Structure formats: C-alpha cells, structure tokens
Amino acid sequence: MIETRNFRILRAVVLTFLSLWVAIPLYVVVSTSLKPLKDVSGLFQWIPREITLAPFIDIWSTVPLAKYFQNSLIITTCATAFSVTVAVLAAYAIARLPFRGKRPFSLVVLSTQMFPGILFLLPLYLIFTQIRNITGIQLQGSYLGLIITYMTFTLPFAIWMLTGYFASIPKELEEAAMIDGTGRMGALVRVILPVAKPGIIAVAVYSFISAWGEVLFASVLTNESTKTLSLGLKSYASESDVFWNQLMAASVVVSLPVLIGFILVQKHLVAGLSAGAVK
C-alpha cells in the first residue's frame, strides 16, 4: 500500500493529538508535584512560578506512605507470584494434557473475564466471614485475604494467556527431552519455561499492574494496618484542606515501580502479548 501525502498528514495530526491527550495530564501531575501548596490552591498555572522538592519530602510524614507502600508491595508481589505459578501449571495442562472437562474448564476460566469485579465483592466478603466463623481464620483485613482476592481476577487472564503461548510451542521440544529421560515436570521446567519466558513476563507484568492499582476490593477487605497505596492516597485530603501538591508527588512516586518495571521488560512484554494473541 502506497501512502499518500494526505494520509501522512492525517496520521501525523492524529498521533500528535493522541500524544498531547496523554502527555498533558502527566504534565499537570508532575508540575503540580513541584509547586508549593500556595501555588496550587488557586487557578492552575501551566508554568510554575516556584519549583520545590518539598512535596516529595513531606509526603512521607503527612501520611504513613511508607507503610502503605510496604503493604502494596507485599500483597502485589505475592499475588503476582502465586498467579503466575498456578497459571503456568494450569495452562500447561490445558495446552498439552488430555483430560475430561478440559473445554468446559477453559470456557469457565475465560468467561470470568466478562463480569465486572464488583459482582465478586459480596460473595468474597461472605466467604471470608464464613471462614472466620468456622475456622477462626481472619482473612478480611489481612494480607492473605487480599492476595487471594487479587488472584480471582489476575489468574483467569494469566491462564488464558499462557495457554495460547504454550500451545504455540512445538511439542517436539519437550518430547525430545522426555526421550532423553526427563519427566513431564522436568521438560516443563527445563525446556518449556525458558522458551515461554516472554509470555510469563507479560502475564506477570499484567498481574502486578492490575493488583498494584486496585481500589474496589482494597476499600472493603483491608483495615488501617493493611491499607494499600491506592487507598492511602486519599489520606492527603482532609476535611479542611487537600494537599494537592503532595497528592501529585505521591502519585508520581507510586507510579515509579510500575514504570521502571515496564521499561525493563518492555521487549519481553510485547513479544509475550503478541505471541499469545496470535495463537
């Protein structure tokens, strides 16, 4: 297809508009985080009159941001690790092993992505309450409870994604390893997982991002000791005032782990998503 001059101009205009649509909100966040509070209380100024790093220092003392950061890191990392581990085993079984009910199981896993998360909130709350009444184990307000909750929406996508990726890997690779004396699990660990590294990284990044910024379940299933960053950011707004500069500074700090991680694994992420989608 030969690109015409009008098409190139239209493409440049559309891409410029989309870039500005994304960049302007980011500029507002960053510029506001570098202003003193008195400069953000009135009309917004595109060019800061005074630049200060004080908001990035004050965010740690105004609210217990370090505690919220620790909670989010523990919960999100554990939920991601468990989701990827279970998804690898489940997806490998679906892609390679014949068993009764494989197709209905795959459809059920995929169908969970069609429902909004709020539909699972009340059932999970009731289940956690029953577990507490029967066993005495307190899941609501605990790390474990939120980790299990996050797995309910990260695991189905991870299984579906990795199933397509494993199915795209030639069976001859693991068959050759098993002929040499390696068992099924040995072939999975030594042969399949290294080949499927881009897909696994893509699933891990998706699971981490989904859990890192989740608000709905965290607002109901946490308490003051397990509150996550997504809820902790609201603490910068009090009844009398809103620390807009600190809120924006905290938003920048909260976004850094995801941004850095995305940059480091961007190549594997694109390869993993495209391979799973094509299959």
From TrEMBL:
Protein localization: Cell membrane
Membrane topology, from the record: Multi-pass membrane protein
Keywords: Cell membrane, Membrane, Transmembrane, Transmembrane helix, Transport
Pfam family, one: BPD_transp_1
InterPro entries: BP-dep_ABC_trans_perm, MetI-like, MetI-like_sf
Membrane-spanning ranges: 12-30, 73-95, 107-131, 143-166, 187-209, 243-265
Residue span(s) of domain ABC transmembrane type-1: 69-265
Keyword ATP-binding among record annotations: no
Transmembrane helix is among the record's keywords: yes
Annotated family: Belongs to the binding-protein-dependent transport system permease family.
Protein name: Carbohydrate ABC transporter permease
Originating organism: Sinomonas flava
